[in-house]
Structures are given as C-alpha cells and as structure tokens.
Amino acid sequence: MSMQFPTEQFAQAKAVQMPHRGEYGRTFDLHPALFALTFGAYIAYIAIMAAAFADADMAIPVAIFVIFVVAGFGTPALWAKVAAPAPGKPPVWATFIREGFECLTGHVSAEGAMVQVLIMPAMLLFWGTAVAIIAACVR
User: Fold this and answer.
1) How far is the C-alpha of 109 from the C-alpha of 26, rounded, in Å?
2) Would 15 be classed as within a structural domain?
3) Is residue 96 situated within a structural domain?
4) Number of domains in the chain
5) pTM confidence score
6) Could you list the pLDDT tens digit for every one of the 139 residues in the chain?
7) CB-neighbour burial class of residue 31 (10 A; exposed 0-12, middle 13-18, buried 19+)
8) For residue 4, is it within any domain?
9) Alpha carbon distance 24, 89 (integer Å)
10) Domain for residue 14, yes or no?
11) Using CA atoms, how far apart are residues 84 and 87, in angstroms rounded to an integer?
12) In which domain, by residue range, is 113 found?
C-alpha cells in the first residue's frame, strides 16, 4: 500500500551521507569461495549419482553432465580473467563476512548471500544422497 507524504516533510529532512560499504563493481562481487562451493556441490552430486547408479551405460551421460557443469562455471571464470582489472582490491573473505554484499535491491549480509547462493546446491546434494541411500537399500 502506498502513502502520500507532504512535500514539506521532505524539505525539513536532514541530508545524511550514505554509509560506505566497500568497493564494488568487480566482475563478480560475490567472494570466489561461494562459486567454488557451488561448483564442488554440483560435481559432488554428479559423483554421488555416478557411484549410486554405476553402470557402463552411464559413462557418457555422466561425462556430459560434468562437461556442462565445468562449462557453466568455466565460462564466467574466463570472462573474469579477460575483463579489465577491477577497481579496488580482490575480495577478501573477512571483508565479505564483515561488509556483506550489495545487490540491486539493497544490502545483503554475508550470511544471507551465502544462504541464497548455496541453498540450491545444498538441497540438490542432500536429495542426491537420499536417492543414493534409498537405491542402495532397495537393491
């Protein structure tokens, strides 16, 4: 719901300086460890599925899945390497934890950003492990 505010209220408002939240504008503002964890979770899921349903006929599909995941993370990594050097220092884990992440909709804490980025890979890994356990029990 929207409310109308009188112009006089804004005329009397005190102008304050925006808080400094670090340097942004890098190729990818999230810390690289989050990309590594996501990549590792997807590869671990493929490894769990390959081990749970090991068969000679599964070699080609598993290889295709691995190629897709490597391409999905490798292409942006190559873009980051060929891009012009980003302003500021490379991201440091402690700085990321302290300052969080600035996105289009506003500031997100580091914990919030990690949950948003890692929830899908974590749930996929959990689901894959559950399927592998169920398949092992049924056989």
Assistant:
1) 18
2) no
3) yes
4) 1
5) 0.75
6) 577 878 887 777 777 776 555 555 555 678 889 999 999 999 999 999 999 999 999 999 999 999 999 999 999 888 878 877 666 666 788 988 988 887 778 888 999 999 999 999 999 999 999 999 999 999 8
7) buried
8) no
9) 10
10) no
11) 9
12) 27-83+91-138
